[in-house]
User: Fold these one by one.
Assistant:
Number 1:
Amino acid sequence: MKDARLGEFEEIILLLVGILEKQAYALRIAEEFESQTGKSVSIGATHSTLERLCKKGFLSSELGQPTAVRGGRRKRIYTISASGQRALIASRDLRTSLWNQYPAFAKLSLNL
């Protein structure tokens, strides 16, 4: 694994895989991304990010069962690996640490 860091988009995609569990296939992930963020995403960007996360060792995938709705085609279902979970924890911890060091944030949270 060359780079254990996650970009923001990679982090969101990885989190969505965890949220969607057995429904974590590319089209559903893209739909959930749009639903959660209010931003559109191309299926190509979703596929390339899923492939990159697999190459980094953060995801694994397997083909689901063929369905009549898909003309007998099978969906590729993604699952977070142990290293993917560690990468998410490291990303969360880094962001939390940085937020905790930001003086203006401490002042803002006291006023809320």
Note: Residues 50 and 59 are 8 Å apart (CA to CA).
Number 2:
Amino acid sequence: MPSDPRPDDRPASAFRFATELVAWVATPWALAPHSVLLAVLSVVVLIGLPTVFSTPGDKRNVIVAVPGYVTIALVVLQLVAAVAAAWAAWHAAVAALVTVLAVVTVVLELPRWRWLTSG
């Protein structure tokens, strides 16, 4: 658990949530034509892993405590899934907007990520 006070990440969390929503929609959308099972599993992984694994102090309810770098890796997984699936499933203009959303999310997440790795 990081020792410093948690930074105010309300703007970052809004962008992070928007990117997660895109990942939850775009990933099964991109996978469904190939495998419905993979599409369903992608949603289970993208929603389930961050629900179960979290860093103490970052969330109120921690089911399985993990170090900060694991939480960061789970966010990166969501970002990569959103961007890759958007490019695979949607029009290039929409995928470009998703890419911009992901880049802005990373920039806004940096203080939180520094905090998560400080402990």
Note: The radius of gyration is 15 Å.
